[in-house]
């Protein structure tokens, strides 16, 4: 519109895009220098995207399930295990793993590239979370080999550890009491005193234990085992064996700072309904920089947790602690200061952001009644021959060439804009995929490659919608400069709406589907965003610049925007009382006749001569300065609508007239 | 040709030439119903017959592991399996340095033995070094269920988004029905050709979901633009305005479809003729059929359907009746109601006439300057 006050700055937009692309590739190049992808560092940056299992091969891990409770390994448990493993891998990123059952029992996991030990652990560890009451705490070293100094140190350390846990418990219980007392108490007992107590308890243990915290459960054998355990040795802190569920269990703390005798399992990890990781929120609402895992129990778990905490509160230290045991290791043993009725607990410990997230993941995606033995771990080659990728890329190249040729035929020089936009889109997509495969381990499968090739069509469609809109505006008699602006306003809406649909599809499939579908959804969402970036930051500003060149503005025959080829015949009001004609291909008289008929509301379906005599109304400049942005009514009709609106309730919604320029008294119906 | 096409596009836009798609919508509805029923029939026949040709990823199959092969070349295994089961396309990968893993669809007991000895011969290892086992589906029930759930949520969300964007649920309903039509037709044609259904096929179908809705949204956007304020005038009916929109976006639809189909066609060609069965062939067939059907349905099914739905709205129905009435009156006035020309002329827009474009203000700067000297 001539009266527009917004100043378009196409060059600035283009420069912005240029900077974005430079930053993208700059980061990538920096990545290849600082964190290069090598044999040792498969997750480093590279100028070629990571490829998925089907194209690059990867590592095949054969897992043999072992039940922990002597139950039969059924097909059902295997299927459940596959589901859990898949969820864990999917939660790690977007690399597409392939998980199958082999034979009766084995599970085969194919992971693209060379997975880190963490990933392999994630797949094969069982993540059994159990809650047991603490019977005895001891210094980590074997009791026989202890010296006074060591034991003092160790006790202090374990006291520290306990302090943390105590805090955690308190907060999760919303308790307001000072924890100092509890902490002091739990720090007090040395291993000697506790073990003595325990031994005594063990001696007169004839009757059945009253409750899981009963010290009578500690048998001499158990005590012996406890004394011999040296938790400072790393091999004793591997974990894995979660112990029997219905009898006491000797265990190390995960950090090796204490050892425990624990009562029977009171709450199973399966009673956890939700687990999440986050920074701990301090008592006054301030966020500390300690990573914790927050868990919520389901109904059964909540009841059990309430009972346990109620019982433990009254017990002396260290029996007032309950241990959170993950795969046989105590990760946290907080003191129960108050009964916790709402089933919410916080696990603190020596977590990093990653380890907290991993634990939350493992807890969330179910604890398996299985552990897995890694039977073999071997490199496998790509499942699809390398010629598939080559031929696929060849097909893409041919397709692209055909698209370029078609664009040039259809849109002449304007087709070059399409080509340039597609090149930019390809460049951005390539860069983003490279960065993503570096940052979050995205890997491109053959299906993904096909998706990218398909994206050529969807991206090109945005340009086509835009160009056709510009042509429509030209046909309505605008100058190119106006047409580019006006066409953009219309096309922008369409492009945004249709891309929004694509994006919804991508997001929904990403979050709800698994495996290969997820990878595809990611590719779809990515290309949709790239499409938007290119259209907004490249194609439109470029069109604005081109509209200023003589070649396009004068409508050169080869420009693809030649008004004459577009059939512009009507007079065009060029402002300041001047009128230009679009060099009509038909005679001027015919044109004016057509216009008159148009205005009178009668047809030009047949040639003008065929039209019957019609009541010719007075026309008010309808064909001069024709515009697409007003309501599609004659002035008489608008007045009628206005009168109706004034007389009765407002007429139905007409909402595409928002930006129509207002003339005279016709403002009222332009809502 | 290009000039002819451009002229054709101009004529479509101005309404000089127009295809009465909305007017003849019954015809297209019948065609769509027949196509859907035929597709369902084909799918039903397939399922009732030997079942759908599901890939190893869905059904599981046999796996052979060759160990101790001196020359772990993949092609050797492909050839060996081809001798026993010619229609089978094995997935071969090298495991470690001298192991070969071969996966095929479920083979009979005899075939398993034959393949084992063939593989042993091919890699010159003892038969005992070739083990066979059953492998489960990598795309199991749970994956399918998740995908189906995703699909359902997608449909609900997209309906919601479209309802909000177009401020009319009938448009969303028409788009979703057209989407259903596209999916059924694509699966039907895929089943007719009988290629193996693999995860690539499913991914292709999911792409079609997005593409079909996308295409429909573009056309509907023009329909909405053209029909805004339609009840405030008496020259054309809602159906006629919608028909004009379809005609005006025809060039766009053709260009987009050609541009989108060209790359897919080249993958399909290379996949089918140079590579044989595999991911590329499966995904490109699903895409090619789906995109072509999607482009067709957004013009010939979605819009007519939308008009049919919208005409059930009281306001639109009354308006249509009023316009028709006035048109008849005008015809009677002119006096030669018999001829087709007269009907067309009176209708003005019967076959998609160019809309009236009232003048707009060009801004104060466009006004003639008052000469300063005159003051």
From TrEMBL, chain A:
User: Record's NCBIfam families?
Assistant: 2A0604s01, secD
Q: What does this protein do?
A: Part of the Sec protein translocase complex. Interacts with the SecYEG preprotein conducting channel. SecDF uses the proton motive force (PMF) to complete protein translocation after the ATP-dependent function of SecA.
The cross-references to HAMAP family, in alphabetical order and at most eight, read: SecD_B
From the Swiss-Prot or TrEMBL record, give the protein name.
Protein translocase subunit SecD
Which stretches make up the SecDF P1 head subdomain domain? 260-369
> How is this protein situated with respect to the membrane?
Multi-pass membrane protein
Into which family does the record put it?
Belongs to the SecD/SecF family. SecD subfamily.
Species assigned in the record: Cellulosimicrobium arenosum
Domain Protein translocase subunit SecDF P1 spans what residues? 78-134
Supply the alphabetized keyword list: Cell membrane, Membrane, Protein transport, Translocation, Transmembrane, Transmembrane helix, Transport
UniProtKB/TrEMBL annotation, chain B:
Taxonomic lineage of the native organism: Bacteria, Bacillati, Actinomycetota, Actinomycetes, Micrococcales
InterPro entries under this entry?
Answer: SecD/SecF_arch_bac, SecD/SecF_bac, SecD/SecF_CS, SecD_SecF_C, SecD_SecF_C_bact, SecF_bac
Region described as Disordered: spans on this chain: 352-375
As for family, the record states: Belongs to the SecD/SecF family. SecF subfamily.
Residues of the Protein export membrane protein SecD/SecF C-terminal domain = 127-311
Does this entry carry the keyword Transmembrane helix?
A: yes
Q: Which gene encodes it?
A: secF
Q: What is this protein called?
A: Protein-export membrane protein SecF
Where does it localize?
A: Cell membrane
List the Gene Ontology MF annotations in alphabetical order.
protein-transporting ATPase activity
Its biological function? Part of the Sec protein translocase complex. Interacts with the SecYEG preprotein conducting channel. SecDF uses the proton motive force (PMF) to complete protein translocation after the ATP-dependent function of SecA.
Q: Where are the transmembrane segments?
A: 28-48, 147-166, 173-193, 199-220, 258-277, 283-302
Quote the cellular component terms of the Gene Ontology held in the record.
plasma membrane
